[in-house]
Amino acid sequence: MAKKKLAAPGGYRQTSSVIVDPGGSWGGIVAAGDRVRFVDLEGQQAVDFLCYSALDMRDRYNAANTMKMAGNAYLNAGTVLYGEYATKLMKIVASSCPNHDTIGGCCSAEMNYLRYGKRTHSCRANFLHELSKFGMGEPDIVANVNWFMSVPVGRDGHMAISDSPSKPGDYVDVEGLTDVIVVISNCPQKYNPACGYNPTPVRVETYTKTRVARRR
Q1: Which of 9, 23, 114, 207 holds its CA 20 to 30 A away from the CA of 155?
Q2: What is the mean pLDDT of residues 101-120?
Q3: Burial (CB count within 10 angstroms: exposed 0-12, middle 13-18, buried 19+), residue 205
Q4: What is the longest distance spanned by two Cα atoms in the chain?
Q5: Of 15, 194, 17, whose CA–CA distance to 100 is shortest?
Q6: Coil, helix or strand for 5?
Q7: Average model confidence (pLDDT) for the chain?
Q8: Are 79 and 159 in contact (CB under 8 A)?
Q9: pLDDT digits (tens, 9 = 90+) for 165-201
């Protein structure tokens, strides 16, 4: 497990730090200008992520809009996460791991049974648990971001979930461009390489801008 504590982003102070166990979940509100950091403590751990405008929850993360505006199927530092109505919801401001996925979606008990003959706990169930805290449910789950997950696409369109390049201590920092609701599932998948066949904990840290007191 990564033991070295990452420094806070310049001009920010930390407001919370939570360890999310394998197969666990987290949700919270990130205000405009504030940041949330996801730290892959042991490496090769997928973190499923969705965000919604806190002012209008219908304005939720839209994978297609995000990829069209980025001109890329993968998410990296500088990528803006767009909503249903072309709203700029969040921005990836730093990432030590390249090419986060936004086409593979989340695992579900039904898909795990279809693909692997196993009914298991899933990211879809975790999303439902977190979304219920904000008055949302099944209709609000859409194609999501998968931090640290590798989904290569070949020239012929073939895609697969492959071994993640993330190492212990890799992180991604995401900034709110408006007030947003953020929910994550720390993926419990054991039957493909999304989590290296061995789900591990992650750390979620939140940061707010440091306010400088005005002199009178």
Answers
A1: 114
A2: 94
A3: buried
A4: 68
A5: 194
A6: coil
A7: 95
A8: no
A9: 999 999 999 999 999 999 999 999 999 999 999 999 9
Q: Which tokens in the block code for residue 99?
A: 């090419």
The Cα–Cα gap between 91 and 33 comes to: 10
Place of tokens 């949700």: 27
Tokens representing 92 are 């990836």
Mean pLDDT of 93-109: 97
Q: Which amino acid is at 209?
A: K
> What pLDDT does 3 receive?
55
What tokens appear for 107 in the block?
A: 């695992």
Asked if 124 and 131 touch (Cβ cutoff 8 Å), the reply is no
Which of 95, 62, 63 has the alpha carbon at shortest distance from 76? 95
Dihedral, CA atoms, 130, 101, 47, 26, nearest 10 degrees?
Answer: -30
Using DSSP's 3-state secondary structure scheme, residue 48 falls into strand
| C-beta separation of 145 from 49 below 8 A | yes
